[in-house]
Amino acid sequence: MRALRRESLGDMSHPSYGQKNCLPTDLGSGYDAMGRIRAHLTKSRFTQDQLRAYEARDRNLAESNCTKVTTWSIINITVMLVTGLIQVRDVYFPSCVAQGLR
C-alpha cells in the first residue's frame, strides 16, 4: 500500500514537482491574475478607508458626548451639594429671615 502511494505521488524530490498546476500557461493569464488581485486589494483598501473614517467620526462624537455628560454631571452634583448644605445649615442655624416667615 505504501509503495502504491509513492508511485501515485511521483518523484517529490524533483524540482518541477507540484509546479505544473501552479504556474500559468502563458504570461497573459499571469498578468490578468495580478490585475484581478490588484483590483481586489484596491477595493479592500477603499473599504478599510471608509471604515476608518466612520470609526473616527463615531469616536469624535462619543468623546464630545462624554465631555457634555461629564460637564452637566458636575453642574448637577454641585447644585445638589449646595442645596443640601443650605438645608442642613437651616436645620442647625435658623436664620432671621426664616423665623420671620413662620
TrEMBL record:
Start and end residues of each stretch annotated as Disordered? 1-21
Q: Where is the GOLD domain?
A: 32-89
- Pfam families associated with the record: EMP24_GP25L (PF01105)
Q: Which UniProt keywords apply?
A: Membrane, Transmembrane
The protein's name in its UniProt record: Transmembrane emp24 domain-containing protein 1
Q: Which organism is it from?
A: Portunus trituberculatus (Swimming crab)
